[in-house]
C-alpha cells in the first residue's frame, strides 16, 4: 500500500465540475482576496490542456487580452475555484493544443461541436 495515495485520498476535495477537455471554452469563477475583502473574478478562455491525475490535476486556460495572449494554470482541486461554466464544446483532434499560440485572427478559431 502506498502511503501517498492514502494521504491524498484522505485530504481530497470533491468538487463537482462539468466534464471539459482541450478546445472547450470555459469560464472559471475564481475567488480573489484583496485585503480583508473577497471577490469572484471570471476568467474566460479556451482550455489548452489538462495534465496530471486525481488530486494533482491542472488545466490551462488561454484568453486574448487586447492583442496579447494570456494563459493561466488552474489546479482542479483548488479551494479558490468557485465554479466552472462550460460555454462551448470545441472540435479539436489533439489533447494539448499548443499550436493555438502561434495562430492569430480567423485561423485561431475553433469549430464548435454540435450535440
Describe this structure as you would to a colleague.
- The protein has a five-stranded antiparallel beta sheet, with no helix packed on it.
- The protein has a domain at 16-92: SH3 type barrels, CATH 2.30.30.790.
- It has one helix and five strands.
- It has one helix at 3-10; strands spanning 25-34, 37-51, 58-65, 68-75, 81-88.
- It is globular.
- It is mostly beta strands and 115 residues long.
- Please summarize the sheet with the most strands: 5 strands, antiparallel
Distance between the termini: 43 Å
Counting DSSP E segments of at least 2 residues, the number of strands comes to 5
Structural class: mainly beta
Question: Strand share of the residues?
Answer: 35-45%
Summarize the structure.
The chain has 115 residues and is mainly beta. It is built from one helix and five strands; from the N terminus they run αβββββ. The termini are far apart.
Name a few traits of the molecule.
single chain; 115 residues; mainly beta; SH3 type barrels
